[in-house]
Amino acid sequence: MAAFKTLDDLTDITGKRVLVRVDLNVPVKDGKVTDATRIERVAPTILELSEKGAKVILLAHFGRPKDGPSPDLSLGLIVPAVEEVLDHAVLFASDCIGAPAADAVAKMNNGDILLLENTRFHKEEEKNDAAFTKALAANGDVYVNDAFSAAHRAHSSTEGLAQLLPAYAGRTMQAELEALEKGLGNPVRPVVAIVGGAKVSTKIDLLMNLVKKVDALVIGGGMANTFLAARGTNVGKSLCEHDLADTAKQIMIEAATAGCAIVLPEDGVVAREFKAGADNEVVAIEAIPADAMVLDVGPKSVEAINSWIGRATTLVWNGPLGAFEIAPFDAATVAVAKYAAECTKARKLTSVAGGGDTVSALNHAGVADDFTYVSTAGGAFLEWMEGKVLPGVAVLQAGK
Ligand SMILES: Nc1ncnc2c1ncn2[C@@H]1O[C@H](COP(=O)(O)OP(=O)(O)OP(=O)(O)O)[C@@H](O)[C@H]1O
Ligand SMILES: O=C(O)[C@H](O)COP(=O)(O)O
Question: Which ligand is nearest to the CA of 206?
Fold first, then answer.
């Protein structure tokens, strides 16, 4: 792994304005953060800089706002959770550039921590727009990237800033890269990957390369419905991206050529409403009622998945198998997580899992600490697995 500068190289920062890119894209329900793991992971970097007397200015995205600012995706909602984890006051500015940001920064004392509003409220962020990056850079003397989980995005706050300011990796960025290299740099076969969740369109392309690197690819969640539909199974009202059928078919062809088994659900738990405790039944995967949706994979599928895990030496997991936030559709994710944890404790398995909701699901199952390594990254983790260059990491390695 190519070298990059870390906080150890960042000396004499008292009074300096340090722009720190963190990932605060945390799960939220009814306005409350339901899993603070990502905040906990960036806390050491933030507190270290604050204790050294820097003015710590946090940059982050939250969700995927489509048309500019929206109150439900304001990072202001996250401030209390960040304060609780840090046990430190956190100031907030209503914009990440312009007068609101500049005024808030001007008022900071050494050691203060300020969170700027969602960078994605400006469409220029995702375009890595030069003028927008410059506007962000105006508030900092130094840039620290501690958001490994957003490092697969070449955005202004994840990549562009590192070209304008002296750039350093934060403690979590450093730890994630070191741990992934150690656990998965040279994975011992057989390798089984589980990919589930809801971000079908942004993750499906990654599977094209992943099938060349693993012995079996277990597909669950919304991703499975897309593959099932592609092979002609009627998925009723399930979360499914029908327009990705050709991509799914191509992945199945690539997998067959590479000798990678594709493991799709044999049965599913279906309901007519997306809510906790909704009436539900287990059906064979070819018998999904037209007016129902699959919200979890069924018990036969769990058995098949666990049998693959039992034969594996390395497990890589991103994306829950079902809508685990609403009982009883957490059953498969919990059962598989517990079995993987058991195999890991018995020293038969190296288990690495990643993703905001995946971490939350492992915490929900009570086994996150039993996995070999739990990354905060989902998409970035899968891209790293594929062997892709992550722009946010590459720019640190190039070193300004
Ligand atoms: N069958 C399903 N139908 C609807 N939603 C599902 C289904 N299976 C899983 N999900 C949802 O998928 C979401 C998690 O997917 P996602 O791809 O965001 O995973 P992740 O671990 O957070 O990865 P990342 O960090 O890349 O976001 C959960 O909110 C879960 O409810
Ligand atoms: O949740 C994630 O995986 C990261 O925060 C990146 O989010 P994105 O997929 O919306 O870029």
Answer: 1
Number of domains in the chain: 2
Domain ranges, residue 72: 7-175
Atom of ligand 2 nearest to the CA of 380: 3
| Ligand 1 proximity of 236 Cβ (cutoff 6 Å) | no
Whether residues 20 and 105 fall in one domain: yes
Residue 231's nearest CA partner among 254, 213, 251 is: 251
Contact criterion met (CB below 8 Å) for 126 and 150: no
CA-proximal residue: ligand 2, atom 6 (nearest): 150
Residue matched to tokens 């995967």? 285
Residue 378 near residue 319, CB atoms below 8 Å: yes
Tell me the ligand closest to 120's alpha carbon.
2
Q: In angstroms, what is the span from residue 359 Cα to ligand 2's centroid?
A: 13
Which among 199, 236, 298, 354 is annotated as catalytic?
199
Q: Compute, in angstroms, the gap from residue 358 CA to the centroid of ligand 2.
A: 12
Q: Are residues 17 and 153 in the same domain?
A: yes
Residue 120 sits in the same domain as residue 218: no
Question: Beta partners for 218?
Answer: 194, 263
Query: Interface pTM (ipTM) of the complex?
Result: 0.95
Verify that 40 and 91 share a domain, yes or no.
yes
pLDDT greater than 70 at residue 343: yes
Say if 208 falls within a structural domain: yes
Q: pLDDT tens digits for 101-113? A: 999 999 999 999 9
Whole-structure pTM over 0.90, yes or no? no
192 shares a domain with 215: yes
Based on the fold, state whether residues 30 and 110 are members of the same structural domain: yes
What confidence tens digit (pLDDT) does each residue in 176-232 have?
Answer: 998 888 878 889 999 999 999 999 998 999 999 999 999 999 999 999 999 999 999
Structure token digits, residue 311: 């034969």
